[in-house]
Design goal:
180 residues, 3 helices
């Protein structure tokens, strides 16, 4: 009888086949869903990162334009600073020279005339030279005594005297070099 009623067997096989097909379809749908979610996620990440990149590039261009806008002001400022430093150094040297001239003018006194004065400077040393003119040798001798005094030698340790000469009009001339 089971062989006669083949529709029932066929119906059972179809039901099993439908259940198997349903299960395969659910698995395929799951795989398709996971693939769709992954695809949408990667598309979303791509859009997010491209937006972030675009924002970063825009910000970079904005900052670059700001830097270029103040570049001239900054270079002018840097040049001004270097000029001020150079002027400060020149003023220091000038002040040293002026202090030395004032000091030695007091040491020489009013009877000794500074006939010539020159200033030379190399990388490390500054040399101030005087050519003194005195009406008598005695005044010049007192100047030489003052030049060898401990107080003056402490302030200006390197003083060199040059040749002593008598001029045509009877005055005495002395060359003096002071290292500042």
């Amino acid at each position: 009888m089971a062989t006669i009623n083949f529709v029932r067997d066929r119906q059972k096989k179809l039901t099993k086949q439908q259940a198997s097909d349903k299960r395969i379809m659910l698995i395929a749908l799951g795989i398709f869903g996971v693939g769709a979610i992954l695809s949408l996620s990667s598309l979303g990440l791509k859009i997010y990162f491209s937006t972030q990149l675009k924002n970063s590039l825009t910000e970079t261009e904005r900052v670059k334009s700001q830097i270029l806008a103040v570049e001239e002001t900054e270079s002018t400022f840097v040049i001004l600073i270097h000029k001020l430093k150079a002027m400060s150094e020149v003023m220091k040297v000038r002040q040293k020279k002026q202090d030395a001239v004032d000091y030695f003018s007091q040491v020489f006194g009013s009877q000794v005339l500074i006939e010539e004065m020159s200033f030379a400077q190399d990388k490390e040393d500054q040399l101030l030279t005087f050519k003194l003119l005195s009406p008598t040798v005695f005044i010049l001798e007192s100047v030489l005594k003052q030049l060898s005094s401990p107080e003056l030698r402490q302030k200006y340790p390197e003083i060199e005297t040059g040749s002593l000469e008598r001029t045509e009009n009877g005055a005495y001339s002395l060359n003096l070099a002071v290292k500042l």
